[in-house]
What we know:
- The chain is 72% helix and 0% strand.
- By secondary structure, it is an all-alpha fold.
- The protein is elongated, with a radius of gyration of 16 Å.
Amino acid sequence: MNEHAHGDVITVLTHDHREVQGFFAELQKTHDGSDSKLRKDLVDEVTIELVRHSVAEELFLYPAVRQHVPGGAELADREIREHAQMERTLKALEGLQPTDAPFETTVSRLIEEVNAHITEEEQTLFPRLQQSCGADELADLGKKVTAVKKIAPTRPHPDAPDTPPGNMVLDPGIGLIDRVRDALSGRGDEK
Length: 191
């Protein structure tokens, strides 16, 4: 378990952001296409992390933003719309190989979408949440986010509900099926 797993929700999610940006940096370093297996593995890793992260945010972060932050409903709705767009991009990427013509433009679009989302969360949403919530509430949210990421799906499911009440019924079967598929294919194995 990483040390960030015991932090407050902002620490946990900011750590996730840096991890995803690390994957993006690796993808950009291999942009010449010399190692297509490595590029596909990196896309799989970033997909796993982004899907788990998004599920955790939609289940716990955004409801807290709605409840505690002035104007939080509008802010949460915007973040959820961004997640839906990222999930569609991830789904498109899932069906592509690095040698396919649209692969590079789809990766670039994903990086652009995710970086814009990260900037918005870190510069707007997180500070507003920190002003509106106590340390205990933020720590509790951090524990919940960390716990749900362990059972969350690992593949994009753009047709699944993103908002209450549908998103609150986290189907453990989806996460289990995703992890079985990952194990059988070797997807997401640590190097």
